[in-house]
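Fold Annotation — chain and its backbone
Encoding — discrete vocabulary of local shapes
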Amino acid sequence: MSNWTKQELVAYILLYAANCNLDIDNHEKNVILSKVDMQTFQRVHDEFDKDNDYQSLQKIISALEEKHYSKVELDTLFDDIKRLFLSDGNYDVMEHNLYSYLKKILS
């Protein structure tokens, strides 16, 4: 999806993060739905399902550059990712590693 809105981009990034342990649970889905409406979630989820990991990262990096995210917006995004990971009460090693990786490549 080119020309994503910022809401669509946030939904895609949160879906990518939630999928790091190959399972998006209801807690994580609720966090994403607190950021976007159901139609946006479903549209972005359909696209996400078609992409492999490499494609997802390329789309995220390109979209963040295109949208010229500020440091404050990136900080908010990483707060949202952390909230997503903590939503099920279990911040596991894969989530921690993905958080660190995303912080490194996106900041």
User: Anything to note?
Assistant: The chain has a mean pLDDT of 92. Residues 21 and 94 are 7 Å apart (CA to CA). DSSP finds six helices and no strands in the chain.
